[in-house]
Amino acid sequence: MKTEKILVTTGAQAAAQRRPAAPRLNPRKLLLSKWTAQAPRNREKHFIVTRVIQPEPPANRIEVVEIEAVISRRSFTLPWRDLTDCHRWLQGWR
Question: Where are the compositionally biased (Low complexity) regions (predicted)?
Answer without folding.
Answer: 12-22
